[in-house]
Prior knowledge:
Layout: H1 2-14, E1 17-20, H2 24-36, E2 48-52, H3 79-86, E3 90-95, H4 129-136, E4 142-146, H5 153-159, E5 162-165, E6 186-190, H6 193-203, E7 240-244, H7 254-269, E8 273-277, H8 285-300, H9 318-329, H10 332-345, H11 351-374, E9 377-381, H12 397-402, H13 408-413, E10 417-426, E11 431-439, H14 445-455
Parallel strand pairs: 2-3, 2-4, 7-8, 7-9
Antiparallel strand pairs: 1-3, 4-6, 5-6, 5-10, 9-11, 10-11
The structure holds glutamine.
Amino acid sequence: xxxxxxxxxxxxxxxxxxxxxxxxLKEAEEIDRKIAENEELGPLAGVLVGVKDNIxxxxxxxTAGSKxxxxxxxxxxxxxxxxxxxxxxxxxxxxxxxxxxxxxxxEGSGYQVTANPWDLSRVPGGSSGGSAAAVSARQxxxxxxxxxxxxxxxxxxxxxxxGLKPTYGRVSxxxxxxxxxxxxxxxxxxxxxxxxxxxxxxxxxxxKFDATSSKKEVPDFASQFIARNHLDSKPLKGLRVGLIRxxxxxxxxxxxxxxxxxxASHLEELGCTVTEVSLPxxxxxxxxxxxxxxxxxxxxxxxxxxxxxxxxxxxxELNSLYGESRAGGLGSEVKMRILMGTYALSAGYxxxxxxxxxxxxxxxxxxxxxxxxxxxxxxxPAAPSAAYKIGEKKNDPLSMxxxxxMTVNVNLAGLPALVLPCGFVDSSSVALPVGVQMxxxxxxxxxxxxxxxxxx
Length: 456
Ligand code: GLN
């Protein structure tokens, strides 16, 4: 009831949801009945979850923020959603996002602009801005997002919540609307590391419907937290932390840098040794990411042809039917990505762009491997600034893309990363949250979450 009331009161200003369920109370009553009758309850019993609108839900629309999928209701639940429901979670609604995940502000939604709960004139980040804002404003307890190039971590930083991008393959992508399939992963938002850990545990694991999902064992991520000895003043003794030098240099807001340095000192107090490390290929990640993500999306989005899904504009000739349905249903950012991707993949330019971007991807992966041989975790900001004003970068896509510099490399390497609040940027009227990003080797979420839990 409390959450639903708050949702009703804050939603007119925040606009984080594209759809709100009308059966939440009924589902909650069902949990109450189970409690009364001593029936077994799942680990997420009664937990109210917001689900990003590019994750399929059988009983609600799933538009991925696009007009081309307006009114589309998938006939199935994404594997991650099904797993949550089995654990007793209640899906409270579908959250706003940049169309198909393409964007960093949620202004790219085909439907509405979401506000940042800390300052309503600012963006919540993106593309999972609705999911981040909803948890930040306590409209729901936890939420699911997706992270192709930072879409869980950057909005977590902008909204002052915990954001977790799992290892590529940890969570099934079945039912996640594809953006760039070699980079996409479903991630978690929570107001604490424990929340994120419990949610990750519920949604992880191999799935026969996603051939890239991993068969690796899924640890009970949060169970280790309880065992922590609070009298131990150096609980992270011996942990080697590498602060990525290229992420605290020029172009980054000085308040962000001092927040990250503050987080490094806090880790030292907890017993870690912190040293600066260099990732020489760091700055190459951004252009490589945008070439690869656009290329993959140009192929993935070819399925929206006006026939298989959603909106159809009638025409007397097939090619015009395709053309007009896509022209009317897809937004300008999406069209630009399709054009960029098609260009990079075309015969005359393939070697110069797509192939070189793949080579950079290998370099990025290698440089992370070297840095993670020497260190248990790496840290950096999650974004070069705090949340900026709505409209500020709307007509300047390159400066919006540049804001993804801190996160895209992690996707290119497929690694897990956790973002947690660590400081503030002083803007004129209000202090805006800043998040620190912690990165580990693949499938080491357990370590990451443990460090995060002790850190917070
Ligand atoms: N902002 C990045 C992009 O537009 C990342 C988006 C994401 O992770 N979905 O591609």
